[in-house]
């Protein structure tokens, strides 16, 4: 079995008397595309903040890229890529300026950054738009650029937080082709999405309900266990525990 790039044990976060994330225990293997799903308020954003070093856990254990989430948050942030639904880029900068800015944050030297930046612009067919302000570019181009910039420093692991929100189905499909290419290169992908069809593209899927992992398995095994034809049907059943009972799947 591949090494675990993410490993958690009873990872918990409380805000006063409210438990937002309740004893999460799971692992993500190197090169895996891991879907992290849940309705708004399920706790997935809080969990991701803990894993990316932005929020300290209340209790439990976790390592990300081999670093401890309590003591080595700076090392975690240097070792991961991150892209949000907002694409994590600056609209008032050009593609070239965004590459230089974020490459500098990631610690790339000037010569390496110049070489990688030009190669990136060419691979994305953005050479002609390299000096156009990002606000003027189509969403699909922004999306591809943001993903590529998040991988500029060649991290082991990338976190994608609702990365395909607001784009059309064709563009979403093309973006997933980029995810597959990254995974084929050994990059581990941790992705949240509210599009249930995208859950089908993941190697394994975790579904959170009320701060806990209610189900974790491959899409095919989840559908089989819940007698469902689609991941959307699985999600609906888990979101209505009173009608289904307390059944869950152990990871």
Q: How big is the Rg?
A: 19 Å
Shape: globular
Looking at how many chains there are and whether they match, the oligomeric state comes to single chain
β-sheet strand percentage? 25-35%
Strand order of the largest sheet: 6-7-8-3-9-10
N-to-C span: 15 Å
Number of helices: 10
What's the rounded overall pLDDT mean?
Answer: 90
CATH topology of the domain at 4-89 and 156-244: Rossmann fold
Let me know the CATH homologous superfamily of the domain at 4-89 and 156-244. P-loop containing nucleotide triphosphate hydrolases
In N-to-C order, the SSE pattern is EEEHEEHEHHHEHEHEEHHH
Q: Percent range for helical residues?
A: 25-40%
Largest beta-sheet details: 6 strands, mixed
Q: Using DSSP, what is the number of strands?
A: 10
Which CATH top level class of the domain at 4-89 and 156-244 fits? Alpha Beta
Q: State the low-pLDDT regions, or none.
A: 242-251
- Secondary-structure class: alpha/beta
- CATH architecture descriptor text of the domain at 4-89 and 156-244: 3-Layer(aba) Sandwich
């Amino acid at each position: 079995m591949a090494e675990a790039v993410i490993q958690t044990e009873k990872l918990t976060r409380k805000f006063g008397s409210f438990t937002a994330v309740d004893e999460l225990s799971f692992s993500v293997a190197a090169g895996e595309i891991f879907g992290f799903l849940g309705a708004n308020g399920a706790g997935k954003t809080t969990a991701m903040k803990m894993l990316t070093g932005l929020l300290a856990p209340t209790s439990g254990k976790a390592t990300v890229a081999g670093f401890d989430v309590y003591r080595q948050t700076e090392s975690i942030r240097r070792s991961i890529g991150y892209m949000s639904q907002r694409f994590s880029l600056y609209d008032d900068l050009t593609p070239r300026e965004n590459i230089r800015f974020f490459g500098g944050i990631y610690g790339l030297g000037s010569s390496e950054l110049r070489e990688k930046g030009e190669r990136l612009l060419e691979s994305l067919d953005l050479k002609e738009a390299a000096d156009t302000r990002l606000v003027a570019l189509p969403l699909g181009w922004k999306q591809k650029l943001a993903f590529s910039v998040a991988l500029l420093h060649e991290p082991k692991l990338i976190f994608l937080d609702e990365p395909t929100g607001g784009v059309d189905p064709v563009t979403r499909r093309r973006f997933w082709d980029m995810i597959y290419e990254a995974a084929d290169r050994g990059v581990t992908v941790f992705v949240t999405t509210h599009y249930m069809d995208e859950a089908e593209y993941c190697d394994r899927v975790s579904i959170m309900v009320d701060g806990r992992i209610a189900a974790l398995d491959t899409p095919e095994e989840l559908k089989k266990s819940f007698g469902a034809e689609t991941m959307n049907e699985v999600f609906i059943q888990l979101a209505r525990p009173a009608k289904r009972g307390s059944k869950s799947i152990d990871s």
